[in-house]
Amino acid sequence: MSRAEYTLGKQCGVTFAGIKPASLFGMKRSEAGKLKGLERRFRKRGFSFERMKRNGERVSLYIYHAERLKGVLFDSENKNFLEGLGYRYGTVSEAVGQLKKRMRGEDFPHEVGIFLGYPLEDVRGFIADPCGGTMLGCWKVYRNAEEKAKTFARFRQCTECICRKLESGQTLAQIFRVVR
């Protein structure tokens, strides 16, 4: 198993496990190139791998499950929120394409939280008051901290389980039973 595969499992395991619709993380471009075989395998299961932004030798990878992300992006409150920010889309790929364009700009688009499955209340809270919040976990929490702490614990347990399996010699293809 390569370092790139371990990083992918650690950063995106909750997405591959179906707990989260998408993940975003950075890695060296040379390492990202080593993921082509896994990318092909996971595409057969409905996952898309997008290189969102390049910065020197690093690349930001956005990995999402189209059907799960569709549920998030077409939720009426989320869609209205994104439309208020100028997003116009009829498909998941159109919405991701618009996010990709915004990520290439100088300002980081904080609405990316919606694309990662974060609750709208927390995305709005962060945009309004980036220094506020009641708890910091996988994202900054502004409401319902107790409920979200349980979600963070679930993410952590899933990630730890995947990392243990990777460290014991299993591959991501074996863990998630993705075929060639």
Structure description:
The protein has 180 residues and is α+β, with helices and mostly antiparallel strands. The chain has one domain. 53% of the residues lie in helices and 16% in strands. It is built from ten helices and five strands; from the N terminus they run H-E-H-H-E-E-H-H-H-H-H-E-E-H-H. It has helices at 3-16, 29-32, 36-43, 66-73, 76-84, 92-103, 112-115, 120-128, 145-167, 172-175; strands spanning 22-28, 47-55, 58-65, 135-136, 140-141. The strands form two sheets. Strands 1-3-2 form a three-stranded antiparallel β-sheet, with helices on both faces. A hairpin with a 2-residue loop joins strand 2 (47-55) and strand 3 (58-65). The longest helix has 23 residues, at 145-167. It is globular and about 45 Å long. It starts with a helix and ends in a 5-residue tail after the last helix.
- The share of residues in extended strands comes to 15-25%
Number of domains: 1
Structural class, by secondary structure, is alpha+beta
What Rg do the Cα atoms give? 16 Å
- SSE string: HEHHEEHHHHHEEHH
